[in-house]
Amino acid sequence: MTRIPYAPALSRRSVLRLGAGASAGIALAPLAGCAGPTGAPGPGAISLGLNRSLVSLDNKLNQFDAAVTVQRAVRQALTRIGKGLRPELVLADRFEMTEPTAWTVRLREGVRYSDGTPVTVKDVSTALKMYAGVNGSFIVGLFPEMPTVEPVDERTFRLHTKRPVPILDQLMANILISPAAGNRPEELSGGAGSGPYVVTSANSGTGEYTLAVNPRYWGRRPTVERVRVRFVPEESSRVVAVRSGELDVIDTITPDSAEQLKGLPGVRLDRTSGTRVNQLFFNFRKPRGHPLADPGCARRSATPSTARPWCAMCSPIRPSRPRASSRSPSRGPYAPGVTSTTPARPASASPRWARAISR
């Protein structure tokens, strides 16, 4: 686990450096474009143009790259996903696997919400229960099982699971912590957060928000005083707005748009690693004799038919019982940067074998 002495200051260049989830999948490279401070927000402020409407600053149901970046400016988790998809400490200053099914976590001393109240162990326990209670929650699906909290002292607690979850420190980056008294099993539209910014105006219907620096923030004060968030669905409009200076930052652009912005004065492109799960669905309703008529045969032939350095097809690797601090980089059908308790077996393509067993 990488330790950071305090949360880093948000700057014009780092505010939209996107984090990613901790699930195996296909590695992609999201693109974000940054322009100079010539747009409408004025000195000391930046304007973000998102490709999807931000309906809430709570991520229980709303989960996409740029939304999470903005949400974590207001509400924080125990950890976050940093460079190389590695977990970094945020509200916690210790997060260690001390048993195969238990992690010992300690809250950072002095972490507080924007209303001045401290972040507590009860807040963490309540947050886990509220996420688990949301119908249709995207977050819950990432967890093999939701951990339970055992308090140790005012700042320390243990997270318990029935089975080993070797990436629990990564998964907990998705659980944003809020005061227990005001937390609910639903997206929160208000309330205090521990992040470097507070919400000064919000319109969930249009996806527009204005954030200002949290005067009670426990970490280093951000260098950007105000952030304006806008919903700009058309990519071409976002690119034009960056070129004209109307927007300072846009997210998730295509390679074609990146080429338009590449080399322009005052514009910088940021690329970052990420993971995404792509599911392939086969149509097995085929006449007898067709290669896809037998689901078992189709799965067996799909496994060797594709080179799978980044794609988990039909043979997921089940790690053995982990030991504390035993996690290592994974090899095989997983995204670069994803870790495992045991090295995965190599996965090479053999189209000839795939065709032979599908006949």
Automatic annotation (TrEMBL):
Residues 1-29 form the signal peptide. It comes from the Bacteria. GO terms for biological process: peptide transport. Residues 315-359 are annotated as: Disordered. One of its GO terms (molecular function) is peptide transmembrane transporter activity. PROSITE patterns: TAT (PS51318). It holds the Pfam family SBP_bac_5. Residues 90-295 form the Solute-binding protein family domain. Keywords: Signal. This is Solute-binding protein family 5 domain-containing protein. It comes from Streptomyces violaceusniger. The lineage of its organism: Bacteria, Bacillati, Actinomycetota, Actinomycetes, Kitasatosporales.
